[in-house]
Each structure stands twice: as C-alpha cells, then as structure tokens.
Design goal:
The complex is a heterodimer of chains A (about 200) and B (about 130). Chain A has one domain: Serine Threonine Protein Phosphatase 5, Tetratricopeptide repeat (Alpha Horseshoe). Chain A is about 70% helix and about 0% strand. Chain A is built from ten helices and no strands. The radius of gyration of chain A is 16 Å and the shape is globular. Chain A starts with a helix and ends with a helix. Chain B is about 45% helix and about 15% strand. In chain B, strands 2-1-3-4 form a four-stranded parallel sheet, sandwiched between helices. In chain B, helix 1 runs parallel beside helix 4. The chains are: A mainly alpha (about 200), B alpha/beta (about 130). At the A-B interface, helix 3, helix 5 and helix 6 of A face helix 3 of B.
Chain lengths: ~200, ~130
C-alpha cells in the first residue's frame, strides 16, 4: 500500500496526540521507577512534531520519519530523545512511500538494532525494546486484522515489563524495587503503536 | 585556537555543570578550552543534544574534546550529539567513562600539559574501577 500525504498527516497527528494526551500517565510511571520526566519530555517532543505536521507530512514517508526523529532528538531531552529519535530516523532511512508487511518488518528489524546500539540494551531489560520486538514479530507474521493484533501485542508487551527487573537506565538503580512497575518507555512505545493501529483501521 | 584538548561537562543539573566548570577553571585557568551544559530544553533537570553541541563548539580544539557526563541520559545524548557533528570533527570527540567532577578536573589537568585526547581520556578513566 501507498502511504500518501493524507495518511502521513493522520499518522503524525494520531501518534503525537496520543502521546500528549497520556503524558501524565507516562510521568506517573516514570516517577515510580525513574526521574519522573518521561511524560513531560515526550509531550515537549511531540508538541514540536505537531507544530511541524504540515511541513513534515509534505515530505516522503522516509524524510518525514527522519524529520520526526531529528525533532525528537532536539526537543525531548533525557535518554528517550536519542532513543526515540534513533528509532524514527532508522525507520526513515529504510522506508519509502510504498510499504508492505515485508518491507515494514525489514525496516523495523533494522530500527530495533539501531535502538539497541544507542541504548546499549536488549530485550528483557525492561525497556521500549520489550514492546518493539514482539511488535516486529507481529508485523512479520502479517495477515488479516493486523491493526488489532498490533494493538493487542503492544498493550500486552508493555504489561509484560511489570514483573521485569530493570537492567538499563535510572530504573536499574532500584534493582529489585523496579519489579512490579510498568516501564514508562515500554508504555509510551505501546501508545505509539496503538495510535498507528487506529490510523490503519481508519478510526484516527 | 588552543593547542590543548578541550573539556566538556554535561550534567542533568546546570548547577552541577557550572560548579564543576568552576572547579576545572580553578585548577587550569583558561589553558584548556571548556564548555558545559545542564538542564533539559524546558529548563528542568535533564540533558539535551542542542546544548551539548553548543558546549562542544565552545570547547572545540583541533586536538579533540573529552566529554564528562553524569547519569545515563547525559551519556546517550552526548553520543547522539557526537554522531551529529560533521565528519572530521566527530572522530575527535570522546565520552569518558569517569565520575563527572573528579573526571573533569583530572582530565583538564592532563589536558593542560598538552597531552593527547587519548591520554586525557585515560587519565579520567583511571578513576573508574574496572
């Protein structure tokens, strides 16, 4: 399928609005096991994306994603700025306007490797990677009702970080005490996937 | 243009960054190009790439720049900033694995002797237990 300017606009709006609307929740999650700024930081980044939505969506999908990545790097702050920035920039590097499950899965796989390198992290460390990896697998499987499965997968994957012990980031300072809380980065990642699923289903 | 390696201090807190920079200046005066930053783009605690790029520019030396960081986000944002530098510069900037205050003072003292970027980094990293 082709991701034209209308869909690009919807994607950017949906993702930005979802993150902004849930900023308080992200901050509350981060207050429990981090420095309590994830929602504030992500809102600042996606407000900047919203401001530029016309310019960004006029570009090809690849350039729009790279533009989002650069905006997040410059505006978010914290570790999530470079991590989400790297994710979007890496996706932008490998995606053209014409996409398929196969192309998307390839791009996602490369983006996950880039995020791992940036964060010196891996799956099972109680991070956004614990959402990205199962979502990547779901995209690879493809098939009917992909949007609904992506939403379910992302939601469940974020929940699955609750019993994990943090290995990276500020939460790792808590050791055992990081267990029992959802990772804020995993949650923000799930929100982004859910917002994309809404666009796929035509509800956003 | 200084003949000495430059030092950049990246803290989550502007107060820590400023204070560390004062301690460095007390030790080496103006012999070492120095840049520092602290705080997120909204003025709260945090780090941000734009401020780090500006600090690298302020401390730029053809001999290279050593960055001292405090917590994880400072390191990740510094690495991102280095990647965004033009080719020719990005190869000459390193993040030291060292405590920020002690590392900055030790690194600057070494830099003031005219030491190479590698030597400056090694001196700072001697403070980190292996």
């Amino acid at each position: 399928m082709r991701v034209d300017q209308t869909i690009r606009t919807r994607l950017l709006m949906s993702v930005s609005q979802r993150v902004i609307a849930n900023a308080e929740e992200l901050t509350a999650l981060d207050r429990a096991i981090g420095d309590g700024d994830h929602g504030i930081n992500m809102r600042r980044g996606f407000e900047a994306v919203l401001t530029d939505v016309e310019t960004l969506s006029a570009k090809s999908l690849g350039d729009a994603l790279k533009g989002v990545g650069t905006t997040l790097v410059m505006k978010v702050g914290g570790a999530s700025g470079p991590l989400y920035g790297t994710l979007f920039m890496a996706l932008g590097k490998s995606l053209a306007d014409e996409i398929s499950c196969e192309l998307l899965a390839d791009a996602f796989g490369q983006a996950i490797e880039a995020v791992k390198a940036r964060g010196k992290s891996d799956t099972g460390h109680k991070t956004m990677l614990d959402v990205l990896a199962p979502v990547h697998a779901a995209i690879g499987t493809g098939g009917d009702e992909l949007a609904a499965r992506l939403r379910r997968t992302a939601h469940a994957a974020a929940q699955s970080t609750i019993p994990m012990r943090a290995v990276r980031g500020r939460a790792s300072f808590l050791g055992e005490r990081s267990i029992g809380h959802m990772d804020p980065g995993a949650r923000s990642c799930a929100l982004i996937i859910e917002a994309i699923a809404d666009v796929m289903e035509g509800t956003a | 243009m200084s003949a000495n390696v430059g030092i950049v201090i990246v803290s989550h807190s502007a107060d820590v960054a400023r204070g560390t920079a004062s301690m460095v200046e007390q030790m080496v005066g103006r012999e070492v190009p120095l840049g520092w930053c602290g705080g997120d783009p909204g003025g709260g605690l945090g780090t941000n790439v734009e401020a780090i790029l500006n600090a690298i520019e302020a401390a730029w030396s053809e001999r290279g720049v050593a960055i001292l960081v405090d917590l994880g986000g400072a390191e990740t944002n510094s690495e991102m900033a280095i990647e965004m530098l033009p080719a020719g510069r990005r190869e000459r900037v390193v993040v030291c694995n060292a405590p920020i205050v002690e590392g900055a003072v030790m690194a600057a003292t070494e830099a003031a002797s005219g030491a190479s970027l590698d030597a400056v980094r090694r001196t700072a990293e001697e403070l980190t237990p292996r």
